[in-house]
């Protein structure tokens, strides 16, 4: 049965806001620096190309989800047929009605979409892997997905806690570069001997526990429960980016360009790729966001418009930053620390931008956590009879094992730069490119063998030619090479 009730559904525009929030996160704040290093010409071409690649694989996820819905409906039809044969003397009106509803798609032609294919039932990537992959493929899939999602949650929790700590605590002296010294530095400047000196690491851990305590409970519910949180923080996100873009454009108008990036610098391409892959990631959470949307007839067009908006937004942010500042920090918000602290307005802007990662990641954290919970359930439980499991296993165990490991990791290991590189690069390439491509290829073959050629999938990707899939696989190999080159350059 569908995973969402009508009361839990939302319009397509709300769904696009969810997807916008999921894509535009802290990855966008790393784009201006990477954009400037790779050159404005090369970066523009690369950004548009990577947006297109991300969109193509998003359509693959949607097509595979429709195929999974078709498989479930076909299995249900076969069950009804068997029950009809066994009880052929029964005249059960409900059974006949259900049978008729499901049998209708068998007579549709090439120009008539099949009612087999729909997006009403939420089918997570894990369920798709169970349906269409063999045992080896399922193991590789779940290893890649769990590494990425657990890494994502750890990165989000640590980034939020550090942002809060930087706002609360005094500025770190410029000569304190050793992480051990950083942990033991006092958070507050105080001279009273009787007052307990809180270190920065203690404040970091308090902020971490507070954040997980507030956002963690969302994992016990469905993604629809975060609707108003998503809409509120979407407004905060637009405001923060609008401030950064407006201030950069103002600097360009008042004093002219301070930055002079070249047009092409291939040495900066690996870093740009890493930033773009992380900036366009949404594929792992698409099923949970798409299934509750009402009116999915033009979903592909709406997705394309959303991606065009995000790409234009990224280009405006990167161009204005690359030319407005002579030096760009890896985290773009650090370029907006005002020098005149007596100006109350600038001080408010400083604090707002410093807390911007908190706004962006607070909306993505519940979605990522719910996605991980659902896929863990798909790995260990039979989702077709999920309600048959006891309450403790179904409602408590999986949310707990979703949130606790990232909390423990970031509580004792606040420096997770290695995890960021691995999560956003190798695992990110697998999630964004390899998994959607292999899924859609196997799903098409499976549904063709099951339903035949005459049953039309109205959610079929426009990039259905096998040449597109082969191109994605070739590009994935190039991506892994670029990522490896980038990591080796950093170590050397």
TrEMBL record:
Residues 10-65, 123-450 form the Amino acid transporter transmembrane domain. Keywords: Glycoprotein, Membrane, Transmembrane, Transmembrane helix. It comes from the Eukaryota. One of its GO terms (cellular component) is membrane. The keyword Glycoprotein applies. The chain crosses the membrane at residues 12-35, 47-72, 139-159, 203-223, 235-252, 272-291, 303-328, 348-372, 392-413, 466-488. Pfam families: Aa_trans (PF01490). It is a multi-pass membrane protein. It is found in: Membrane. The keyword Chaperone does not apply. Belongs to the TMEM104 family. PANTHER family: TRANSMEMBRANE PROTEIN 104 (PTHR16189:SF0), TRANSMEMBRANE PROTEIN 104-RELATED (PTHR16189). This is Amino acid transporter transmembrane domain-containing protein. The lineage of its organism: Eukaryota, Metazoa, Ecdysozoa, Arthropoda, Hexapoda.
């Amino acid at each position: 049965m569908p995973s969402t009730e009508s009361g839990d559904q939302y319009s397509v525009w709300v769904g696009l806001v969810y997807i916008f929030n999921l894509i535009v996160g802290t990855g966008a704040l790393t784009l201006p620096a990477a954009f400037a290093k790779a050159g404005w010409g090369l970066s523009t071409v690369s950004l548009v190309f990577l947006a297109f690649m991300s969109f193509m694989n998003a359509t693959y996820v949607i097509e595979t989800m429709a195929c999974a819905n078709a498989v479930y409906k076909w299995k249900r039809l076969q069950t009804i047929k068997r029950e009809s044969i066994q009880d052929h003397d029964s005249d059960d009106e409900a059974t006949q009605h259900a049978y008729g509803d499901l049998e209708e798609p068998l007579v549709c032609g090439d120009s008539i979409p099949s009612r087999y294919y729909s997006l009403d039932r939420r089918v997570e990537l894990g369920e798709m892997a169970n349906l269409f992959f063999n045992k080896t493929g399922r193991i590789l899939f779940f290893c890649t997905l769990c590494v990425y999602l657990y890494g994502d949650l750890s990165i989000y929790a640590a980034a939020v806690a550090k942002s809060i700590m930087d706002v609360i605590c005094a500025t770190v002296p410029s000569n304190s570069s050793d992480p051990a010294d950083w942990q033991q530095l006092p958070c507050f400047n105080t001279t009273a001997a009787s007052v307990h000196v809180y270190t920065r690491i203690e404040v970091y851990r308090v902020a971490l526990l507070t954040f997980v305590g507030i956002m963690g409970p969302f994992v016990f519910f469905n993604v629809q429960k975060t609707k108003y949180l998503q809409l509120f923080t979407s407004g905060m996100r637009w405001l923060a980016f609008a401030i950064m873009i407006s201030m950069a454009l103002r600097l360009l108008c008042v004093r002219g360009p301070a930055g002079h990036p070249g047009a092409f610098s291939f040495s900066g391409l690996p870093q740009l790729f890493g930033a773009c892959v992380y900036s366009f990631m949404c594929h792992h959470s698409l099923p949970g966001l798409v299934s509750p949307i009402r009116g999915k007839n033009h979903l592909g067009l709406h997705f394309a418009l959303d991606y065009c908006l995000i790409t234009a937004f990224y280009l405006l942010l990167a161009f204005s930053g690359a030319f407005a500042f002579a030096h760009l920090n890896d985290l773009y918000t650090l370029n907006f620390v005002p020098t005149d602290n007596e100006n109350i307005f600038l001080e408010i802007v400083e604090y707002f931008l410093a807390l911007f990662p908190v706004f962006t990641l607070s909306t993505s954290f519940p979605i990522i956590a719910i996605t991980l919970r659902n896929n863990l359930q798909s790995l260990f439980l039979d989702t077709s009879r999920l309600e048959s499991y006891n309450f403790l296993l179904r409602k408590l165990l999986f949310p707990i094992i979703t949130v606790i490991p990232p909390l423990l990791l970031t509580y004792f290991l606040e420096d997770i730069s290695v995890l960021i590189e691995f999560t956003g690069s190798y695992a990110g390439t697998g999630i964004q490119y390899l998994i959607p491509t292999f899924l859609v290829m196997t799903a098409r073959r499976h549904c063709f063998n099951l339903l035949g050629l005459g049953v039309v999938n109205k959610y079929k990707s426009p990039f259905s030619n096998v040449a597109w899939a082969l191109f994605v696989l070739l590009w994935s190999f190039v991506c892994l090479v670029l990522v490896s080159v980038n990591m080796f350059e950093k170590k050397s």
